[in-house]
Amino acid sequence: MRLKNKKVIALVEHEFEDLELWYPVLRLQEEGAQVDLVGKEANKKYIGKYGVPAESAYAFTDVHAENYDGILVPGGWAPDKLRRYSEVLDFIKIMDNQKKPIGQICHAGWVLISAGILQGKKVTSTPGIKDDMTNAGSEWSDEAVVVDGHIISSRRPPDLPPYVKAFADKLAD
Fold it and tell me: What confidence tier does 81 reach under pLDDT thresholds 50, 70, 90?
């Protein structure tokens, strides 16, 4: 398994896009990665947009980005909440500084915007936040997946297969 000994944070908050959380988590686990669901509170059940639950293993304050190899930010409406937590923004900034894989899909770009890391980066997202992404200084394109260094971005659930493959490839490097 090519991702054995790799650890990934998967951020969770209410109203995450169900597939955009669970598809990457399960695919990375299939390849041997340890994926920890991390939310504001540990051992809390968060409910996705379509009713699929996810229970956090850890609270934001329980983990340190330095101990992980990558981070996943799901879309849905959760990113609008996640970007309000200083710990989440710190995770993103630390991962960015250390050039560790940062995966973002759909509305998850909002978290990267709030962390201030998109200036000069090539990205994609749901077209609904294209203006937000470009106003943050990024170069936006309408592609299934865009990889710019350690930042892997994607648009929406139909793009999950190439998105997760690109994230896993970067994590395996």
Answer: very high
